[in-house]
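Recall the central idea of this unit: under ordinary conditions, the amino acid sequence of a chain determines the structure it adopts. In this exercise we apply that idea directly, starting from the sequence alone.
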Amino acid sequence: MTTIPLSAVLLELESGRRPKGGAVQSGVPSLGAEHLDGLGGFAWHSPKYVPVDFYAGLPTGRIEHEDILVVKDGATTGKVSFVNGSFPFPKAAINEHVFRLKVDPKKACARFVFRFLASPQGQQQILSDFRGATVGGISRGFVEKVDVPRFDVDEQERLAAILDKADGVRRKRREAIKLADDLLRATFLEMFGDPVTNPKRWDVGVLDDVVDSDDTLNYGVVQPGDDVPDGVPLIRAAEVVSGLTAASNFKRITSEIESQYERSRIRGNEVLIVCVGSIGAVAEVRSQHVGHNIARAVARVPVSGDIEREFVADYLRTQRVQNYFINETRTVSQPTLNIKQIKQTPIYLPDRPARKRYVKTRLRITAALERCHLAAVDSEALFNSLMQRAFTGRQ
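Accordingly, the structure predicted from this sequence is:
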């Protein structure tokens, strides 16, 4: 399969800017790196704007239909999004941290080029131009280092349409997961009330009150060493953030190192909390995790046998507790939540019949959620397989 430099299929390559005083409260939307969602689309939770007259005078950086946007610097360098028909703004611009690429429709299909740039191969080629340490980034020269698979435009259109459909499926799977998560949160609040106001007047204590009396709340392995093929699985923050799914890819540590941390070895009655980095992410261990250990960035909460672990986990996910974690975070080299603060987390404790009713309802929702996760894994695998075939010429 032959390739062609990205630079050879572009009509325009430019970045934008914002006024000297920065963004304003209203006007024309101004997109920065934070507005590219990492899935090829856009995130509008924190919109920024430039004045209308400033936009009118911009010589570069005005967003148009079928533009490809690429983050040029910072932690998300190389992230790519595509301006398709669902883009909600008739007028918008980019700031100085984003490149705008306009593909020549006579030479290539913009959607195909976007899909390639978003693929693992495309990302690797983009980042080959990365330079700098503290706040590194890519230069305009990255377009000379990216080689796009060369097909005629009609074939690119056909391949892009296939990838668009597969991407649509995986997006629907993600949306189904979000809806199930939202239902679970709503069910919790409906049955027990908002923890901030405690309208049902449940007894209130601290998290340490529900810890197994024969155990203690702790964190795990400080220096795990190298990954060894036949070692003991180590649950890190990333696995907790992803919910300890069946697809979790655990690092493995030697049994000699693991034996020094018997106190944090998983027994099966735990809820885990990320206490370094992605503060507050929560996951419940399952039977298959017994015997694993946890990393220093993870706190282990061994729940007493007379308290429903599912209730504790979902309580810790409430906004009140997440706000508490944020407020109690200490920043040294990175955000850290100490064990003492976790033990003192406020918790209300409904009566046992109410907790049992919740667990029964929750079981039905989580069964549907698990099916959604499995379907999402399948759709992701299908999309990645189709990408690999499309960009290697094996249709």
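Residues 203-349 form a domain with the Adenine-n6-DNA-methyltransferase TaqI; Chain A, domain 2 fold (CATH 3.90.220.20).
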